[in-house]
Design a protein that fits this description.
The protein is mainly beta. It has a domain of 45 residues. It has no helices and three strands. It has a three-stranded antiparallel beta sheet with strand order 2-1-3, with no helix packed on it.
Amino acid sequence: MAMGFGRKNMEEIKMEEVKVWECSSDSCNCWVRDNFKSSQVPACPICKSEMNESIKELQVVNNNSIYTK
C-alpha cells in the first residue's frame, strides 16, 4: 500500500469583492480588510495616515475574533 506523503488537498480558492481601507499616503501601500479594522474609520497601522474605503477582489477570510465593533 503506497502512502501519498507530500500530497496537498487542493481546495478551491473562493474569491469575493471585499470592502477594504487603503492608506491615503503615496509613500505607503498598506490596506486592511473592513472586517479586520480596529475602529469605525481606521488610521493606517503603519504610518498613521488617513485611510479611504475601497473594494478589492480577495480570497475569502473569516474573522472569528470575539472583539467586533
